[in-house]
Amino acid sequence: MWLEGLNGVKWLLLLAFVLALVAPIFNGGFNVSAKAAAPKLSKLNPLNGLKRMFGTQALMGLLRNLLKFFAIAIVLSLVLWERRDELIASARFALEPMVNTGASIALLVFTLVSIAVAAISFLDVPYQKWSYLRRLRMTKQEVRDEMKDIEGRPEVKQQIRRKQRERSRARMMDNVKEADVIIVNPTEFAVALRHDEMSNGAPVVLAKGRGEIARAIKERGETAGVPRIEAPALARALYYTTDLDDMIPEGLYRPVAAVLAYVYRMSALAPDLTRPEFEAPDVPPEFRFDENGQSELARGGRA
Question: Are the C-beta atoms of residues 181 and 259 closer than 8 Å to each other?
């Protein structure tokens, strides 16, 4: 007898099984985790239960559950009322016809209820995702506070600046090998220039520094075979007026052109020929600086 009853509802059970497998796919895929099944003592805490009973989230959950309940109740009431005569008549049938009638009504109820619940889920699932992401998202004030807490620490700021300087210096030193000439004040300043003859642009400062950095530039240039020219006033003028990767100012075109012309002439000479002595070009008065970057024109001095 129980086999006959099972046979009558087999399609209903099969449909429920298929829906149980397919439904998670529309909600982000399968996610099997033993952690969710592990017992948690915190779930037995009545205070946590009270917190979940009150609040906006609990109210929205109650409204969703009531909506589902009324949808199912309405579907059940309509189907049972529509098939009331058939249900009453099936009480006088034999077992098999009665089971088949009950199974067909149950399948109809299940189908209509599933449609109703699915329609509600199309609204409920996006809301659930939106609500979950909203709870995870930090407010603008929280982001500002966190950034202030991280970046506001003096040691963190100092470390960030130090790493930025290290990266900038490493990149600058790597560019020295691409320079056409390094103009130096023998003891203090060094500026590496590159001039692209294929373009109409002015020479560009690839690297510059003083003290320890100037010595490192000269060593890197010597290793790469970059010509080095001593022109103290011009080295100071380039150091104090031009930033890295910028073209030199127009007022320094003539003295820099003189340096490049000398370098190109020397590179064309045979190694065994005597090289003429280089004469440092004149630097316009407004581009003359002392060791500390003070304009010598403003002080009435000369380089």
Answer: yes
